[in-house]
Amino acid sequence: MRTGILGGTFNPPHLGHLHAAELAKDALHLDKVLFIPTNIPPHKAMPAHTATAADRCEMVRLMIRGLPWAQLDRLEIERGGASYTVDTLHELRERGEDDLYLIVGTDMLLSFDGIWRAADEIVRLCTLAVCAREDEDWAALERKAQALRGKMGARIELIRGKSLTISSTELRHGGELRRYTAPAVADYIERNHLYGYS
Questions:
Q1: Distance between CA atoms of 156 and 184, rounded to whole angstroms?
Q2: What distance in Å separates the CA atoms of residue 159 and residue 87, rounded to the nearest whole number?
Q3: Of the candidates 159, 79, 82, 93, which has an alpha carbon nearest to the alpha carbon of residue 126?
Q4: Which residue in 11, 127, 167, 173 has a CA-CA distance of 20 to 30 Å to 181?
């Protein structure tokens, strides 16, 4: 079974996350995509007045409700501590998931061998599914992908899609909530007064 993995703080989850998951699912014929909320991101502090882990999980659940191919997976929350992708991949493999596709953006590909913990181990455990906008510098992405294939034996799929750039930071600071999140997520945020919405 081909399994996609989309991790992140989901603070809040928005339509850009859903778009990337659908793009990868369709391009790579994934059977399912696991949405895995980060417990503590290792490379950045969670912002002040942030949603709790329980709130972030519930918002993901609401966003993907009714999508048979999408699943919320709380393994990083339940594991506790800082969330490292390599640990998550090992845990998924131990659960019997053996055909894994890690869905990432172009910035993550370009910095992959610089900031990711155990990058060489990550590429042994999964294929990198890189969602890139049509207007990206595709020559640079191809060069980076080729370099990682040569240096690490990485399996990398570059997926070209329509631009849908949405910032969780802007949404937390009063952005167009109902334009960029699922209606059930916007309702939840307003009902629970998250990020100062009411």
A1: 34
A2: 25
A3: 93
A4: 127
Residue 47 has pLDDT above 80, yes or no: no
Contact present, 101 and 3 (Cβ < 8 Å): yes
The HSE-up count of residue 61 (CA atoms within 13 Å, CB side) is: 9
The residue type found at 169 is: T
> At a CB cut-off of 8 Å and minimum separation 6, what does 51 contact?
11, 12, 59, 194, 195
149 in helix, strand or coil? helix
What's the CA gap between 97 and 4, in Å, rounded? 10
- Token pair belonging to 90: 């090992």
Sheet containing strand 32-37, edge to edge, reads: 70-72, 32-37, 3-8, 100-105, 127-133, 156-161
* Per-residue model confidence as pLDDT tens digits over 115-151: 899 999 999 999 999 998 888 888 899 999 999 999 9
Return d(Cα 69, Cα 44) in angstroms, integer. 30
Beta strands in 41-155 (DSSP E): 70-72, 100-105, 127-133
Tokens found for residue 27: 């391009």
Placement of tokens 């590429």 in the chain: 123
